[in-house]
Amino acid sequence: MIAALDRTPLNRSFFDRPVQEVAPELLGRLLVRSTEAGPVELRLTEVEAYAGPTDPGSHAYRGRTARNDVMFGPPGHVYVYFTYGMWHCVNLVCGQEGDPGAVLLRAGEVVRGAELARPRRPAARHDRELAKGPARLATALDIDRALDGADACGPPSSPLRILTGRPVPADQVRTGPRTGVAGEGGIRPWRYWQAEDRTVSPYRAHAPRRRPRT
């Protein structure tokens, strides 16, 4: 018998730890996105950890900017960034205030509100593809920069919250290099996923972007 999802909110102390500790323990947690149309709920199946000034793959590697400011703030808040001029990606801030760290939410299973997510992801052939990748996840849950800085440990009225869910047992957690990250940052085994889960995105090594020929 599969255990029910625990709807107890995760408290801020859960995130007030090193990002490498928090990341694997986020697998199986329940991400709840509340909108006027209704909620969409996602069970997390894949994440990536990003540290601060010591991590070449992190947005905080070169210091604080207007873009990454939320990473330096209190843990448990949402960091949303825009990439490639077309996609949003969502992260949860970890570590002590002033010590930037964040977990990128890479993939998950939509367990409630699929009828709201499907129109946002018309290219998905199956529901398991609705949030199979970080940009797809943000699109399915209608997440953009307007949610940057939102408190995922806040009250029920918060637009994005993280609940206890059903943590993935340690023997079902897999780890490997981060997807699409170049150089030293790419080889760090800070990508975590649930073994044999069909919503996990495929691994892709970094490929330099080529400028179009003129």
Automatic annotation (TrEMBL):
<comment type="similarity">
    <text>Belongs to the DNA glycosylase MPG family.</text>
</comment>
<dbReference type="GO" id="GO:0006284">
    <property type="term" value="P:base-excision repair"/>
</dbReference>
<dbReference type="InterPro" id="IPR011034">
    <property type="entry name" value="Formyl_transferase-like_C_sf"/>
</dbReference>
<dbReference type="GO" id="GO:0003677">
    <property type="term" value="F:DNA binding"/>
</dbReference>
<keyword id="KW-0326">Glycosidase</keyword>
<dbReference type="Pfam" id="PF02245">
    <property type="entry name" value="Pur_DNA_glyco"/>
</dbReference>
<dbReference type="InterPro" id="IPR036995">
    <property type="entry name" value="MPG_sf"/>
</dbReference>
<feature type="region of interest" description="Disordered">
    <location>
        <begin position="154"/>
        <end position="185"/>
    </location>
</feature>
<keyword id="KW-0234">DNA repair</keyword>
<keyword id="KW-0378">Hydrolase</keyword>
<protein>
    <recommendedName>
        <fullName>Putative 3-methyladenine DNA glycosylase</fullName>
        <ecNumber>3.2.2.-</ecNumber>
    </recommendedName>
</protein>
<keyword id="KW-0227">DNA damage</keyword>
<dbReference type="GO" id="GO:0003905">
    <property type="term" value="F:alkylbase DNA N-glycosylase activity"/>
</dbReference>
<dbReference type="InterPro" id="IPR003180">
    <property type="entry name" value="MPG"/>
</dbReference>
